[in-house]
Specification:
Shape: globular
Strand content: 15-25%
Number of domains: 1
Catalytic activity: L-cysteine + L-glutamate + ATP = gamma-L-glutamyl-L-cysteine + ADP + phosphate + H(+)
GO biological process, one term: glutathione biosynthetic process
GO molecular function: ATP binding; glutamate-cysteine ligase activity
Helix content: 40-55%
Subunit structure: Homodimer or monomer when oxidized or reduced, respectively.
Oligomer: single chain
Number of helices: 17
CATH topology: Creatine Kinase, Chain A, domain 2
Largest sheet: 9 strands, antiparallel
EC number: 6.3.2.2
CATH class: Alpha Beta
Radius of gyration: 21 Å
Number of strands: 17
Structural class: alpha+beta
Length: 456
């Protein structure tokens, strides 16, 4: 997330919390796609991580990129922690371990997403090359230890770093060593939100398998195809997972608000100060009885910021975030956007996708979520291999994109971007499988070649 919200309007009722979500509704004619991706920076000369400070650090990289793009700096105290394109809506941010993130602008189609990505990567290379910085296109840093990874000077991350070890064993790995790609989609009504949320949650393990790209940790295979996905299973059970409540009768904005109210808070921001209230209740903040800030009451900013600190596999804000995939190269980033646009933005495809998953039970979904980081497409659900489910999902997505009929200058529709995923399903092998084969063969059981062969 590039920066925390600043809106001091008081919140006094549960209805206002519900309205904050419902205000995100848009007519289908205004639906957009927002694509966010992280990439792990490293020094090309010696394959070491990039610290924040120094003549060739993350701060210098952000300053260079600001000059390249003209985007405005985002500050945390005296530290530049991101860049904002205030006209276009895009932003750059840094994750706790220095992962460099583009939060893309809301765009009308996948073609526009690809153009945005190409422009961003070109500008980032121009900013990074004089500093000797490259970027990995892997879902987890393959070599550096948790302790050897720099920590970025961002106030909310300092609070999270103190809280994470209290609620899970792998939260710091999530913060420091993983990289993901997310796709943000719109909804037109509460019922539309619920349908998309349910389909998105059920099919996140399919995305995890298709985009699996984090098989190495600490310089060797880690036993998983998507270690990034496995790490999320032991990060913080209060705010992560498959969110089974979404499949219950009567689920909607109110149920989500009630769940979010009971998720422990991280911080309250007042002015430029982040107050550590980790573990506290938003209900107490609403009533002015937060122990850490007596008498302080909730604002719109507090609610928006709190909504950004939960991490289910699909997250509801004023749009829906699809969160289940490891990052990959540009073609895979485009494929992620195309997959969800095809499944969720055509009525026929959305209905077919729901038919695909509606018979799965909560226990089956949870079992699949637990199995897929290790097994990938070889996992199974409802008596079917996940490879077969993925093939059907891709067929539905292709039909949805063809029905959308959004064409580029050459007359091609968005289905062209699904080709890398269709190749993965046809071969039954993710990129993680291919990288493990390289490790056992040409790489001679060394991950160092990843720093030249797995880069943006």
């Amino acid at each position: 997330m590039a920066r925390d919200t600043s809106d001091t309007t008081p919140l006094t009722s549960r209805d206002e919390l519900i309205a904050w979500f419902s205000d995100g509704e848009k007519p289908a004619t205004r639906f957009a796609l927002g694509t966010e991706h992280e990439k792990i920076p490293f020094y090309t000369a010696d394959r070491t991580p990039v610290p924040y400070e120094g003549e060739r650090g993350i701060r210098a990289l952000l300053e260079n990129l600001g000059r390249e793009t003209g985007w405005e700096p985002i500050l945390d105290g005296a530290n530049i922690i991101g860049l904002a394109h205030n006209e276009g809506g895009g932003a750059i941010s840094i994750e706790p371990g220095g992962q460099f993130e583009l939060s893309g602008a809301p765009l009308p189609d996948v073609h526009a997403t690809v153009a945005e990505l190409d422009e961003h990567l070109a500008a980032t290379r121009r900013a990074a090359e004089p500093l000797g910085i490259g970027f990995l296109d892997l879902g987890m840093s393959p070599k550096w230890t948790r302790e050897g990874t720099p920590f970025m000077p961002k106030s909310r991350y300092r609070i999270m770093r103190g809280y994470m070890p209290k609620v899970g064993t792998l939260g710091l790995d999530m913060m420091l060593r993983t990289a993901t790609v997310q796709v943000n989609v719109d909804f037109s009504s509460e019922s539309d939100m619920v349908r998309k949320l349910r389909v998105g949650l059920a099919l996140q393990p399919v995305a995890t398998a298709l985009f699996a790209n984090s098989p190495f940790t600490d310089g060797r295979p880690n036993g998983f195809l998507s270690r990034r996905s496995e790490i999320w299973r032991d990060t913080d059970a209060d705010r992560t997972g498959m969110f089974p409540q979404a499949f219950e009768d009567g689920f909607g904005y109110e149920r989500y608000v009630d769940w979010l109210l009971d998720v422990p808070m991280y911080f309250v921001k007042r002015g430029e100060t982040y107050h550590d209230v980790s573990g506290a209740s938003f209900r107490d903040l609403m009533e002015g009885r937060l122990a850490q800030l007596p008498g302080e009451r909730a604002t719109v900013s507090d609610w928006a910021n709190h909504a950004s600190t939960v991490f289910p596999e699909v997250r509801l804000k004023r749009f829906l975030e699809m969160r289940g995939a490891d990052v990959g190269g540009p073609a895979m980033i485009a494929a992620q956007t195309a997959l969800w646009a095809g499944l969720l933005y055509d009525e026929g495809a959305l209905s077919a996708a729901w038919d695909l998953v509606r018979g799965w039970t909560a226990s089956e979904r949870e079992s699949l979520r637990a199995a897929v980081p290790r097994l990938g497409l070889a996992a199974s659900i409802g008596g079917r291999s996940l490879g077969a489910v993925a093939a059907e999902a891709l067929s539905i997505a292709r039909a949805g994109l063809q029905a959308r009929a959004r064409r580029d200058a050459s007359g091609r529709d968005e289905a062209i971007y699904l080709q890398p995923l269709e190749a993965i399903v046809a071969a039954g092998r993710s990129r993680a499988d291919a990288l493990l084969s390289l490790y056992e063969g040409p790489w001679a059981k060394c991950v160092d070649p990843a720093f030249t062969e797995c880069t943006f």
